[in-house]
Design goal:
Elements: H1 2-41, E1 54-58, H2 68-74, H3 84-106, E2 109-114, E3 121-127, E4 130-141, E5 149-166, E6 170-182, E7 189-195, E8 197-202, E9 205-210, E10 213-218, E11 226-238, E12 244-252
Antiparallel strand pairs: 1-4, 2-3, 2-12, 3-5, 4-5, 5-6, 6-7, 6-8, 7-10, 8-9, 9-11, 10-11, 11-12
Length: 254
């Protein structure tokens, strides 16, 4: 009787052990699958350009600026104080750009004109630089919520320029110039070359001069704000005016 009872208890114990073992396996299997699923979802996405980073691109690169409105609508944190500083910085950058453009028009270039009659005569000029043509380099600054800042550098430019020379008499002049800047991407200086006619009022007579120029273009390509140092030779075509050489230094937005 005791033997049968012990045998029954042994069978019950084996069944309980098997049940617990299966339960443990079944419990571990979903946990392992969950860990596998979590590992998959936590994989990092492909690397993207960081926010607030300036990306200097070659002409023809496919990276395009992003519209901040779409990102603002997708991320509710864009309307909070977390990215308030970023929005203020983007707005101030646009304000600074407009202010520097205005200063470029108002602040004159300073220089001196050398002629045989006037050894050295001071001169002031107000060039208006109008870039055009293909984009040689582009810089994009990424933002998390605001629109990306895009700066494009165009090496060709039209340059109408009004100036005044102060020698024995005050001589106003107007030049319609074409120029180009040869500056490598990321370089701090480049070469400038240009040509154009100059119409000058000298000795109460209108003179037409051909005025080629060469110069240096200082500033990191391709952010705005440059310093230009150039020499311009003015050769008379029509009228009565001696040849002259103009040396000048000026600040320019482009």
């Amino acid at each position: 009787m005791l033997t049968e009872h012990a045998s029954a208890n042994s069978r019950i114990a084996r069944r309980l052990s098997a049940t617990l073992l299966l339960g443990g396996v079944s419990t571990f299997a979903p946990h392992a699958a969950c860990q596998e699923a979590m590992h998959v979802t936590e994989r990092r996405p492909p690397r993207q350009p960081p926010a607030n980073a300036a990306l200097l691109l070659r002409a023809g690169d496919t990276l395009t600026p992003l519209d901040g409105r779409a990102r603002f609508a997708a991320d509710p944190e864009c309307g909070t104080m977390k990215y308030f500083g970023e929005g203020m910085a983007a707005g101030m950058a646009a304000l600074y750009s407009a202010a520097f453009r205005g200063l470029d028009l108002l602040v004159p270039d300073i220089g001196t004109v050398y002629t045989k009659r006037n050894a050295l005569a001071p001169a002031l000029s107000w060039p208006v630089i109008i870039p055009f043509g293909p984009v040689s380099a582009r810089e994009i600054t990424r933002h998390h919520c605001a629109d990306d800042d895009v700066v494009e550098f165009q090496s060709m430019r039209l340059v109408p320029e009004f100036g005044v020379s102060f020698g024995n008499e005050t001589s106003p002049w107007l030049r319609l110039g074409y120029g180009t800047v040869l500056q490598a991407r990321g370089s701090k200086f480049g070469l400038l070359a240009g040509i154009g006619p100059t119409f000058a009022l000298r000795d109460a007579h209108l003179a037409t001069l051909l005025s080629p120029e060469l110069g240096l273009h200082f500033g990191t390509c391709c952010r705005p704000l440059f310093l230009t140092l150039l020499a311009r030779y003015e050769h008379m075509l029509f009228g009565e005016a001696p040849a002259s050489i103009l040396f000048k230094l000026g600040f320019s937005y482009w």
